[in-house]
Amino acid sequence: MLHPNQFTVNEAWLVFKLNAVPIHTELEGDFNVIALMDAASCFILGNTFVPVGEAEPSKMAVRRLIKEAKAHKRQLPKTLFIPSGQFPSVLPAEAERQGIGIVRVPEDQLLMFIAEARESFTEHFGGGGVE
Fold it and tell me: Residue 130: is its pLDDT beyond 50?
């Protein structure tokens, strides 16, 4: 089982879906929120909204997300943990293009990192509508 104390800040990041229930907007439909987190600090480095029908963010959204995350420490991590079966192509391809190694792990191995963020997100937004 992975744990934050196994890493130093900015050594590894992980990507995950932050919301349990899609976020609904009147104008643009339903979205999932994809977050990028530092594995050591569990600090959320950035996020992006992805329409529910899409498996992962667009190439442009992924580049913006990585750039936003990189701005915090002005460097990229060595490793990006991706939940198995999620984010099939665009996100891992862009990370590898930027020199980040990809490690796919079962999502339950990431719960130590992401459970609190998900809980907090649900408390604040609950998956309800956004005007």
Answer: no
